[in-house]
From TrEMBL:
This is Uncharacterized protein. InterPro entries: UBQ-conjugating_enzyme/RWD. It comes from Bradyrhizobium niftali. It comes from the Bacteria.
Amino acid sequence: MWTQGQRDRLAVEHQILQNEGFTQFSVYRNPSDDTYYASGYATSNAGRNYFLYMPIPSGFPAQRPPLYITDPIPLLTYNGTPISSLGVSHAMHTLTPHAGGWVQVCHWRDARWHSGIVLQKVFLKALIWIEAYEQHLATGRDLADFVRSMAEVA
């Protein structure tokens, strides 16, 4: 399923995370089905913990990996609505949620993803999303008020 080049790239991705100070995240191989994922806990400036889970698609690095927040679940809006019930939401910077109710963070559009983007940048965008989410919880304002989309900055 995985080429040697992909396996080598995933080993490099793990090293980048460690070398760039993202040591709370790692790339893992599940030997039972030979799949890969990256994950770890992120702690917000307010001290809340969020578990980030990124299953690596078989088309990586050319294919964009999804990034989910799996804990806490459900992840709620300011008004108490599960974010996953919003589906794709520009206001909340989310993509189609996982069937398990996990919120999928919008980090790159498929059309803008390319093999030069490293997983460390995906986790960096997730950390920014988390801080914007906490501002949403404090103010009720949309995440889009705190985080610009790529179309706005391109």
